[in-house]
């Protein structure tokens, strides 16, 4: 049976997030009552994945609006601007966060002459819309992408791009799901994805729940499989795509793309149009998040690196557009030249 994993749900006046730090061992919910709870949840990886953190931040701004509606209108807008900035800063690389907050801010601007309860109501509607649309968008990505998946294909993926990384269904994992729904016999290799192990913990969990055959490998096995001709297709997600197609995604993606190029394995990125940052000419302008050394020095509380040793822990890397065979969006598959192809998406 196909299960739609939903990373988040707004009910009973609060935001319920599946606590992704605890999966697959425990299925626990992290409750957000305030926008500060939301900021914490995004920064600390309770929720992660570009589309999921976008929708989460939108609900964060709605929670702020609910709290601030007791203030005078001028103070309300000042406090909302502050809350939006705090949410924006929770993680720097995935542009979906800024995109979702911009959508919410646009509503505030359009409705600024209305009474505060009306503005708050409109903000809730917009956050719900962002969340609802995300699942539809992912299904559409899946429909376009599954055409690339041949019967019997062995697919390699990195990080987690499934229902947990989105509001539901997934992007790269959505393509895999969509192919499987069409009864295509496929096999997935999931990179474990150090240091947060999104592949081993989350991708393997989602695929196993649905009965899609999956083998987890440590990240460094990928090169051997690719060289030995064991991989037919690589599909990954994205956190931010520049106008020229350069793509920031989970650390390790660039290495896979180089291997793919070297051994002529098709390499695709699956992402919604909201992940494209049309303000950036190329990827060099994308801020790559660096995370705490403890994520590398410790595994589940056990120290594995000697005291006092330096650690470099970037959460993402940049894949140049030359390494990408196509970008699968909800509006179709875009291929080189990316500048023109991606720009055309703005018009559709
Ligand atoms: O640090 P994370 O787990 O938020 O990183 C997630 C990724 O890199 C995903 O590949 C990307 O956000 C796309 S999710 C549909």
In the CATH hierarchy, the architecture of the largest domain is 3-Layer(aba) Sandwich
Gap between N and C termini:
34 Å
Number of strands: 16
- Give the helix level as a range of percent: 40-55%
Ions, cofactors, ligands: which are bound?
5-S-methyl-1-O-phosphono-5-thio-D-ribulose
Classified in CATH, the superfamily of the largest domain is: Translation initiation factor eif-2b, domain 2
Structural class: alpha/beta
List low-confidence stretches: none
Return the CATH topology of the largest domain.
Answer: Rossmann fold
Q: What is the CATH C-level name of the largest domain? A: Alpha Beta
Order of helices and strands: EEEHHHHHEHEHEHEEEHEEHEEEEEH
Largest sheet properties: 7 strands, mixed
Report strand order across the widest sheet.
6-5-4-7-10-15-16
What is the 3D form? Answer: globular
Counted up, domains total: 2
Mean pLDDT, to the nearest integer, reads 97
Strand content: 15-25%
| SS summary, helix count | 11
Radius of gyration: 20 Å
């Amino acid at each position: 049976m196909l299960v739609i994993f939903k990373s988040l749900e707004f009910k009973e006046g609060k935001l319920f997030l599946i606590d992704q730090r605890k999966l697959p061992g425990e299925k626990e919910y992290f409750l957000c009552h305030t926008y500060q709870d939301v900021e914490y949840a995004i920064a600390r990886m309770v929720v992660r994945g570009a589309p999921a953190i976008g929708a989460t931040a939108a609900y964060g701004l709605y929670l702020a609006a609910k709290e601030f509606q007791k203030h005078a209108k001028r103070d309300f807008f000042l406090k909302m601007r502050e809350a939006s900035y705090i949410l924006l800063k929770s993680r720097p690389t995935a542009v979906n966060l800024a995109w979702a907050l911009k959508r919410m801010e646009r509503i505030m601007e359009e409705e600024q002459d209305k009474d505060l309860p009306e503005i708050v109501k409109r903000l809730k509607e917009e956050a719900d819309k962002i969340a609802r649309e995300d699942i539809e968008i992912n299904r559409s990505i899946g429909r376009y992408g599954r055409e690339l998946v041949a019967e019997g294909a062995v697919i390699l993926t990195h990080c987690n791009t499934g229902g947990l990384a989105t509001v539901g269904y997934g992007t790269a994992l959505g393509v895999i799901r969509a192919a499987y729904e069409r009864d295509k016999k496929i096999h997935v290799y999931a990179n474990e994805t150090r240091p947060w192990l999104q592949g081993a913990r989350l991708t393997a969990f989602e695929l196993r729940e649905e009965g899609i055959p999956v083998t987890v490998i440590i990240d460094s096995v990928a090169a051997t499989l690719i060289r030995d001709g064991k991989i037919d297709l690589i599909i990954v997600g994205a956190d931010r795509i520049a106008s020229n197609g350069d793509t920031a995604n989970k650390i390790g993606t660039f290495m896979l793309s180089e291997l793919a190029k070297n051994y002529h394995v098709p390499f695709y990125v699956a992402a919604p149009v909201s992940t494209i940052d049309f303000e950036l000419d190329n990827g060099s302008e994308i801020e790559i998040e660096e995370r705490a050394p403890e994520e590398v020095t410790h595994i589940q509380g056990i120290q594995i690196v000697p005291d006092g040793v330096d650690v470099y822990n970037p959460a993402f890397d940049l894949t140049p557009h030359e390494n990408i065979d196509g970008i699968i969006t909800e509006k179709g598959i875009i291929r080189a030249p990316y500048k023109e192809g991606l720009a055309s998406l703005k018009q559709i």
